[in-house]
Write a structure and sequence with these properties.
By secondary structure, the chain is α/β, with parallel strands linked by helices. It folds into three domains: 101 residues, 3-Layer(aba) Sandwich (Cobalt-precorrin-4 Transmethylase, domain 1); 103 residues, Methyltransferase, Cobalt-precorrin-4 Transmethylase, Domain 2, CATH 3.30.950; 179 residues, 3-Layer(aba) Sandwich (Rossmann fold), CATH 3.40.50. Helix content is 30%, strand content 23%. Strands 11, 12, 13, 14, 15, 16, 17 and 18 form an eight-stranded mixed beta sheet that branches. It has a five-stranded parallel beta sheet with strand order 3-2-4-1-5. Strand 12, helix 11 and strand 13 form a beta-alpha-beta unit. Helix 12 packs parallel to helix 13. The longest helix has 13 residues.
């Protein structure tokens, strides 16, 4: 069985290992870590030490690990189990024995410098990752957020995103080169200041709400959305919108498509109520891009992926397969659209659509939906009927793809 000793270290040349670790270093022969780690520990390694650089692609690194029989000592920054390399070893070599000697992680160090309790802090890593988990923390109104950054997700980029979507009730504490006696710098600034910040990397952040965060709402009034040419009929009305989201069963879903989003009301509402979702929204009208952007900014709904153009011509193979699809518009191609969606819909996923009941509408969308879903072997759910004021009644339709 492969054996690893994973040792956490600070970003400082003048730290000291515990006696137990010093004894381990004196007897080991195979060592590994990043280049910066090698700079920090090289003078404390045996003269005959063999070093394996941790560089991408990691598959090459693990091939080298597999080729040696001796235990491997791996150096990592801070706590190796805190978004660290020990987790990578567990994933790549699940049968390996791993012994960890942790150091303080960077966010612990920053909290200690500022005497900030961190037991209730929401932790998000943006190191080599995109925005979804950070967006989720904002939407869920976390009042204390610890952020691991990278060069792309810098303090200024983070502050700009927060300001863009209206999350301005925070102040930002930045820790640069934590643990490095010569370079360490810690300061707390406003988001407007942080938007122009030029902090050196590496750094980490703690965001704290400096004023009460606005409560999350269940249902956005229709008049608060920017509408297509001001046309109040070109939006899925709030009660129908909420019932449609309920039909989509979004607590259990991960990937939602909103086809024919128009104002973006369904996408925005879904994003705010179910921030764990990844939402991809489609609209054929060019005006849809500006509408979605404005409404996302108004209501603080970052992270919706927008596609403008004919859905029937989209290359859907490059997108994540959905497990929930809302059809807000089909342009007279409902049957073909359902067939196309079905091809990519995950087993157990569902399609939901609202059909108008009207004597003047020449095409019976409900009949097409139900017939097509039945042809594909989908399971139809009981339709829900709702009528608002003087508007025509609406039927909420749902079909589920069979599990494998």
């Amino acid at each position: 069985m492969k054996k690893f000793f994973v040792i956490g270290i600070p970003d400082s040349p003048d730290f000291h290992f515990a006696k137990e670790v010093e004894e381990l270093l004196s007897t080991a022969r195979i060592f590994s870590g990043g280049r910066r780690h090698h700079e920090l520990v090289s003078e404390q390694l045996p003269v005959d030490a063999q070093w394996i650089d941790i560089t991408v692609p990691l598959d090459d690194v693990f091939r080298q690990y597999s080729a040696v029989e001796s235990p491997i000592v791996v150096f990592a920054s801070g706590d190796p189990l805190f978004f660290g390399f020990a987790n990578t070893i567990r994933r790549k070599m699940p049968d390996a024995e791993i012994i960890v000697y942790p150091w303080f992680n960077s966010l612990q160090t920053l909290a200690h410098r500022m005497v900030i309790p961190y037991h209730d802090m929401r932790i998000v890593s943006l190191t080599g990752r995109d925005w979804p988990e950070f967006d989720r923390a904002l939407i869920e109104r976390a009042d204390k957020i610890g952020l691991l950054t990278d060069r792309q997700h810098s303090p200024s980029a983070i502050a700009q995103r927060m300001i863009e979507y209206g999350y301005t009730q925070y102040q930002m504490t930045i820790g640069e080169h934590l643990g490095n006696r010569e370079k360490e710098k810690v300061r707390t600034i406003s988001l407007s200041e942080a938007a122009h910040d030029t902090s050196e990397y590496p750094n980490c952040l703690i965001l704290q709400a400096s004023s009460p965060l606005p409560p999350r709402r269940l249902g956005i009034p229709d008049h608060e959305f920017m509408l297509l040419d001001g046309r109040s009929k070109m939006i899925t009305k709030m009660p129908i919108r909420l019932l449609s989201l309920q039909a989509l069963d979004l607590y259990q879903r991960h990937e939602m498509w909103d086809i024919g989003f128009c104002t973006g009301s369904v996408s925005v509402e879904a994003r705010l109520q179910f921030p764990h979702l990844h939402i991809t929204s489609f609209e054929i009208r060019q005006e849809g891009r500006a509408l979605m952007q404005e409404n996302c900014h108004r209501f603080g709904a970052p992270g919706i992926e927008v596609h403008i153009g004919d859905f029937m011509q989209e290359d859907l193979s490059v997108l994540k397969a959905p497990d929930a699809v809302f059809i807000g518009g089909h342009g007279g191609h409902l049957r073909d659209m359902i067939h196309r969606i079905y091809k990519y819909l995950r087993p157990g996923g569902c399609i939901v659509m609202n059909a108008v009941i009207s004597q003047v509408v020449p095409v019976d969308s409900r009949a097409i939906f139900e017939t097509t879903a039945t042809e594909l072997g989908m399971t139809l759910q009981s339709a829900e009927r709702i009528q608002l004021d003087e508007f025509n009644p609406i039927i909420i339709l749902k079909a589920i793809k069979q599990e494998l």
